[in-house]
Amino acid sequence: MTDPLTGQLLGTPEETREAGKGLAQELGPGDVLALTGELGAGKTHLCQGIVAGLGSDAGVTSPTFGLVHEYLDGRLPVYHFDFYRIEAAEELVELGWDDYLERGGVVLVEWADRFPDWLPEESQWWHLCHDQESGGRRLQSRP
Ligand SMILES: Nc1ncnc2c1ncn2[C@@H]1O[C@H](COP(=O)(O)OP(=O)(O)O)[C@@H](O)[C@H]1O
Ligand SMILES: [Mg+2]
């Protein structure tokens, strides 16, 4: 059950991946998902579910500094960014950020709040956080 204020409780890493698979069903060409939440909140697990839900067999890991991971074998291409170690917007330009937004795929961005101005207006913002009580995670849509 998803309450708009408290979000969806994800008890295990597997449940986080399942939530990602659910999100994937709604995605279309050009969609941008801006993911926020501290280290270990489950952003990469959510991305794993999204990529799997789009039908890719790839194993998803966090993109390291200066890289974007591309998953091209699913229903839509996925371009997976992680802004955590990006220091300056020029690095995004060098990565080809603008071009990726135009490719008609799905763009996933971990730590999107590090450069919020670079996310398109129509991006879908999702926040993950630790749920102290259960030890699990919570997923909230941030309009
Ligand atoms: N409900 C949960 N959902 C996702 N990860 C969880 C959950 N419970 C525990 N974990 C653990 O938390 C970590 C989340 O890692 P990751 O998805 O890489 O987070 P992030 O990308 O936000 O830093 C993993 O070590 C995972 O095993
Ligand atoms: Mg990550």
Explained architecture:
With 143 residues, this protein is of the alpha/beta class. It has a single domain (9-103, 117-130), classed as Rossmann fold (3-Layer(aba) Sandwich), CATH 3.40.50.300. 25% of the residues lie in helices and 23% in strands. It contains four helices and seven strands. The chain has a seven-stranded mixed beta sheet, covered by helices on one side. Strand 6 and strand 7 form a beta hairpin. The structure holds adenosine-5'-diphosphate and magnesium ion.
Features:
Rossmann fold; alpha/beta; 7-stranded mixed β-sheet; binds adenosine-5'-diphosphate; binds magnesium ion; globular; 143 residues; single chain
β-strand number:
7
What CATH architecture label applies? 3-Layer(aba) Sandwich
Strand order of the largest sheet: 1-7-6-2-5-4-3
Tally of individual helices: 4
> N-to-C SSE series?
EHEHEEHHEEE
Mean pLDDT: 95
Summarize the structure.
This protein has 143 residues and is α/β, with parallel strands linked by helices.
What's the layout of helices and strands?
Layout: E1 8-10, H1 13-25, E2 32-36, H2 43-53, E3 69-71, E4 78-82, H3 89-95, H4 97-101, E5 106-110, E6 124-130, E7 137-141
Parallel strand pairs: 2-5, 2-6, 4-5
Antiparallel strand pairs: 1-7, 3-4, 6-7
